[in-house]
Amino acid sequence: TQLLEQSPQFLSIQEGENLTVYCNSSSVFSSLQWYRQEPGEGPVLLVTVVTGGEVKKLKRLTFQFGDARKDSSLHITAAQPGDTGLYLCAGGYYKLSFGAGTTVTVRA
Amino acid sequence: DTGVSQNPRHKITKRGQNVTFRCDPISEHNRLYWYRQTLGQGPEFLTYFQNEAQLEKSRLLSDRFSAERPKGSFSTLEIQRTEQGDSAMYLCASSGGGIAYEQYFGPGTRLTVT
């Protein structure tokens, strides 16, 4: 059973557009991690958020952790085809629980 | 900077055969994890080692599955009497560096049971 729900499941946008994906839970997490995964490869860690209300920026990616530490969002500004992939959120300390992911496709 | 490596990358086997996968973690990491990922799902936790001690196993890890980390370095995951339902991507991750709980994943082993 996945404790984390991600939405939307699929997202297809044109290059240059912005997008937001969401990660929600009924449980409080001490930290949340965001990963990007490409087909046939393992997930690559993008960021870890640990403090309620925290905002982290990684170039064109902005990550927010909800005040109650139950939800998080990932916003991509001016998406590029290289941003295409499966975006996964994961919570937990040593035993990560993952959402099912959001498949993002950025069309050139 | 060497990341997590896994071998083989792909394995095709017939139902009923045994298979073994290997994971080499990032050298300074003392924690090692195994996950399984099926199509359309996020990874699911299987088991976790701290050094050579296996500290937790998921109920997903049936009696046909066994994992070892004999010297606290590399780890192996063996599946005995494989079933078609075992077809999945098996992912290994390690942690223990600057932020102890951040997990870094290997490229995975894709298992296909025919």
Which secondary structure elements does this structure contain, and how are they paired or packed?
The complex is a heterodimer of chains A (108) and B (114).
Chain A: E1 4-7, E2 10-14, E3 19-25, E4 32-37, E5 44-49, E6 55-58, E7 61-65, E8 71-76, E9 85-91, E10 97-98, E11 102-107
Parallel strand pairs in A: 2-11
Antiparallel strand pairs in A: 1-3, 3-8, 4-5, 4-9, 6-7, 7-8, 9-10, 9-11
Chain B: E1 5-7, E2 10-13, E3 19-24, E4 31-37, E5 44-50, E6 53-57, E7 65-68, E8 75-79, E9 88-95, E10 104-105, E11 109-113
Parallel strand pairs in B: 2-11
Antiparallel strand pairs in B: 1-3, 3-8, 4-5, 4-9, 5-6, 7-8, 9-10, 9-11
Can you give a write-up of this model?
- The complex is a heterodimer of chains A (108) and B (114).
- Chain A is mostly beta strands and 108 residues long.
- Helices cover 0% and strands 54% of the residues of chain A.
- Chain A has no helices and eleven strands.
- Chain B has 114 residues and is an all-beta fold.
- In chain B, the strands form two sheets. In chain B, strands 2, 4, 5, 6, 9, 10 and 11 form a seven-stranded mixed sheet that branches. Chain B has a four-stranded antiparallel sheet with strand order 1-3-8-7, with no helix packed on it.
- The model of chain B has no long low-confidence stretch (mean pLDDT 93).
- The A-B interface holds A 2, 4, 31, 33, 35, 40-45, 48, 88, 90, 93-101 and B 4, 6, 31, 33, 35, 40-45, 48, 56, 91, 93, 95, 99, 101-108, 110.
Please summarize what this structure is.
The complex is a heterodimer of chains A (108) and B (114). Chain A is 0% helix and 54% strand.
Q: What are the salient characteristics of this protein?
A:
heterodimer, A: 108 residues, mainly beta, six-stranded mixed β-sheet, five-stranded antiparallel β-sheet, 11 strands, 54% strand, globular, B: 114 residues, seven-stranded mixed β-sheet, four-stranded antiparallel β-sheet, 49% strand
